[in-house]
Structure formats: C-alpha cells, structure tokens
Amino acid sequence: MSQDEVYDKAGFGRTVARGERPGIVVVDFSYGFTDTSYPTAADMRDQIAQTRKITDLARDRGFPVIYTTIAYQRWEAETLPWLRKATGMKALLVGTRMVEVDASTGIVDGDPVLVKHGASAFHGTNLAALLTAAGVDTLVVTGATTSGCVRATVVDAVQSGFTVLVPQDCCADRATAPHDAALYDIGQKYGDVTDAADVIEWLKRI
C-alpha cells in the first residue's frame, strides 16, 4: 500500500470547504529570512512575488492582509529555550533591519505587522482576535519557513476554527526536503495545499 493510500484509508487528505470571507497572513518574509547576506536567510524572491499577487488583490477587494515578524529583546535572546536550539535566530533583534518586513512584499501603511516570539503567528499574539473581528472564515497562509513558522501557524489556525489554504508557491524554506514534507503533512491533516493562481481565481469570485 502506498503512502497516499495509507493516508486516504485513514481518512486524511480531504478537501476543505472554502468560506466567503478570506484573510491573508504573510509569515516572516522579513529581511532576516529573505536577504541572503544574512546566514538565517534563503532566496525567497519567487515566493514573495507570487504572494504579492495575492496580497495586492486581497487588499484591493477589502480583505485583511496581516504580516508577521520575529523580533526579540536582547534579554529574551539569552533566555528563551527555542533560541538555545535555533541559535541563529538570536540575531533577530528588535530595532534591526533583519526584523523589518521585506519591502518587496508590497506591504503598505495600515497593514498590521504582528511581532511574534515563537513559530506560530497565533502564539502570544492577537491574530485570532483580529481575524475574528474582521469576520474571516478562511485563512490563506503564506511565508517562511514552510517547515517551521508556516506549518505552526497552519496548525494553530485550524485549532482556532479557521479553514486554511496554503499556496505552495508562496511558501519558502531553506531546503527542499523539509519544505516538501511540511506541505505533504499540511495537505493531509490541516488545510488544502494549492497555488497562487487558484487562490487568486477564488478571491476574484467571492
């Protein structure tokens, strides 16, 4: 029995029903992840360009577009357990260029930027409240990294009551294997893995 057959037999990988009020979350497309002059970054230009097609349209249609960044105070960088494991993340300090959202994303004044201290965009932030207040029922999750903060955000989004779509060409990682594995896991258990073209057509219809 193939891997896909195993999951299908167990009842995973079903398609989710999309709602009528989308929201877009762009996870951690900050310079610390996108500018390859930093050791924590990778080349994410293609994924940013595809994401911008979605965010520009969503903003024009009046749907919320929310960005996140990871930023630490110096004292946090020396005390948080996650940063003992992922020590390179200590460089993401408040006030540095590394934690600024990459301008190539097309972010505009008025777009919320949530500062997070862990992988999930929901943990320790008011993201769920912002989405609920905006009436969002379906969350499109993009950003970096696929196997880390994107996946964690997707899991928490489902647990917070949102239907989730993940356009795979809008998600970036430092390596192919974890990127592919995370997308497979998301598609089987948490949300629909799709692409930017599909999301754009859906946004145009609603």
TrEMBL record:
One Pfam family from the record: Isochorismatase
SUPFAM superfamilies: Isochorismatase-like hydrolases
Domain of life according to the entry: Bacteria
GO molecular function: hydrolase activity
Key words, A-Z: Hydrolase
Domain Isochorismatase-like: 24-198
Entry-linked InterPro entries: Isochorismatase-like_dom, Isochorismatase-like_hydrls, Isochorismatase-like_sf
PANTHER family noted in UniProt: ISOCHORISMATASE HYDROLASE, PEROXYUREIDOACRYLATE/UREIDOACRYLATE AMIDOHYDROLASE-RELATED
Name of the protein: Carbamoylsarcosine amidase
